[in-house]
TrEMBL record:
A GO biological process held by the record: purine nucleobase metabolic process
Organism: Urochloa decumbens
Lineage, top ranks: Eukaryota, Viridiplantae, Streptophyta, Embryophyta, Tracheophyta
Boundaries of every Peptidase M20 dimerisation domain copy: 262-373
Subcellular location: Endoplasmic reticulum
Protein's UniProt name: allantoate deiminase
Length: 501
């Protein structure tokens, strides 16, 4: 049976109250006025029919293209992904873009001005989803960017652009199928290793197999051709739902991102002695399930109270409260073999996701947890192994680009609401394609408010007018970034309407 998509939002108001109390930990720059109530968003002549109505309809349409029955699932080059590719290509063409699909399944839509020698402005996000996903994660950034360029097309401004502008729908960011993230954006950034072709999913199918099944060349040479020359790219901008509760607590539709937390993914394998549940005495068992349970609780304690478990050599007590504030650790998947109710498992493996704004904190937690795994497993007479699956350092946004996006967002909200407080600046605890693209060019991000901070769930919800605000902010930014030689928006008076649409 498919999971229900109409789960109740329990204790929503209490949850928001708690968030308001603790929100300062996640923010890097939010004026006191940002939390004041803004008027309802609205406004005429701001391309509502494209930036809101059509964009929302397209989000819903893409959200129905799924490999799952009754829930949304669209992984790397799955049948649903191939169907979604055709739809996205049609939308890009509708916006006046030249389209192609590269050798990693990324979809590109580009406008190339005649005789332009300037660096390209890239925009986009990912088209893949988690299992039982919502319709905004990733898709919002793709469709908002397409819609913004369509506005320029219908207003006659697309032909006046002086630099290339391109939207990319990345084929894989979540890493659900192959347990390795950023397959699409890392290929574009030129950082995807050749060895990725031999990585396999749970069925034993490799990345190379999947590429071949979908008529791609599936060679190291073909993947290398996907990468862009850094000298040809000026910047990368990504619109994304916040996936957190901060903007909702502040009652503000948009925020800009100062940086993205670093992330490490591990796989822990615990081997014990498989046996009959009724005949092996408790004192003689080598039970990997019990050992795994203890390790999960140990990870929770380590990340909740790190200074209580870190050793002196691991710089116990040297981390400030601020550096530890963004530390989060998660066990998201646990598998047993043979997974029968009357059998003591022979093996248990589980995933570990560790994130922190401070790379030193994250690396120390990874080292400490690996040490604790060996200690706990020795105590329980089971064998354990920790495999490193993915690691990415914290990624700062480009300060100048962030400033420009901040002004563009404020301009959009001001145009729609009649006034606007200073745009909040946040850190991101979630990984995004912008992390991979930052190795190619400077990057910036805009977050869009979502209900309850819920993401990776069918309960994801972004207000239609907030989708509109994001699209309008992107229009403001693109006009300046792609028309002038300098990526600058004019400074706005506190309550001025500065959008010129």
């Amino acid at each position: 049976m498919a999971p229900s998509s109409s789960r109740p939002m329990r204790h929503h108001h209490l949850y928001l109250l708690l968030i308001v109390v603790s929100v300062s930990v996640l923010l890097t720059s939010v004026p006191a006025s940002a939390a004041d109530d803004l008027p309802e968003l609205g406004g005429d002549g701001l391309h509502k029919e494209i930036l809101r109505d059509e964009t929302v309809l397209r989000l819903k349409e893409l959200g129905k293209i799924s490999d799952g029955e009754g829930y949304l699932e669209r992984t790397f080059l799955s049948p649903a992904s191939i169907r979604a590719t055709a739809v996205i290509v049609s939308w890009m063409k509708d916006a006046g873009l030249t389209t192609w699909v590269d050798q990693m399944g990324n979809i590109h839509g580009r406008f190339e001005p005649a005789n332009s020698t300037q660096e390209a402005l890239l925009m986009g996000s990912h088209m893949d989803t988690v299992i039982d996903a919502g319709m905004y994660d990733g898709s919002l950034g793709i469709i908002c960017a397409i819609s913004a360029l369509k506005v320029l097309k219908v207003t006659g401004k697309l032909q006046r652009l002086t630099r290339p502008v391109e939207v990319i729908a990345f084929s894989d960011e979540e890493g659900v199928r192959f347990q390795t993230t950023f397959l699409g954006s890392a290929a574009v950034a030129g950082t995807l290793p050749e060895s990725i072709l031999q990585v396999s999913d749970k069925s034993g199918t490799t990345v190379q197999d999947v590429l071949k099944m979908n008529s791609f060349e599936a060679t190291a040479a073909a993947i290398s051709q996907v990468s862009y020359n850094p000298e040809s790219v000026g910047s990368y901008v990504e619109i994304h739902m916040e996936q957190g509760p901060v903007l909702e607590a502040l009652r503000y539709p948009l925020g800009v991102v100062k940086g993205i937390a670093g992330q490490t993914r591990l796989k822990v394998i615990v081997d014990g002695s498989q046996g009959h549940a009724g005949t092996v005495p408790m004192k003689l068992r080598r039970d990997p399930m019990v050992a795994a349970a203890e390790l999960v609780v140990t990870l929770e304690r380590l990340c909740k109270e790190p200074n209580k478990l870190l050793t002196y050599d691991e710089e116990c007590g040297c981390f400030t409260e601020e550096s530890l504030a963004g530390l989060v650790c998660t066990v998201g998947e646990l598998l047993t073999w043979p997974s029968a109710s009357n059998v003591i498992p022979g093996q248990v493996n589980f995933t570990v996701d560790i994130r922190a704004m401070d790379d030193k904190v994250r690396e120390t937690i990874v080292t400490s947890f690996s040490r604790l795994v060996l200690q706990r497993c020795d105590d329980r007479l089971v064998d354990c192994k920790v495999e490193h699956k993915h690691s990415a350092p914290a990624t700062p946004s480009d300060p100048e680009l962030t400033s420009q996006l901040k002004r563009a967002a404020r301009s959009a909200v001001s145009a729609m609401a009649g006034r606007a407080a200073e745009t909040p600046v946040l850190m991101s605890g979630a990984g995004h394609d912008a992390m991979a693209m930052a190795k190619l060019t400077k990057m910036g991000m805009v977050f869009v408010r979502c209900r309850g901070g819920v993401s990776h769930s069918p309960e994801e919800s972004v207000m239609d007018d907030d989708v509109w605000a994001a699209g309008l902010a992107l229009v403001n930014f693109i006009e300046q970034a792609a028309v002038s030689s300098e990526l600058l928006l004019p400074e706005a008076e506190p309550d001025a309407v500065v959008a010129d649409l």
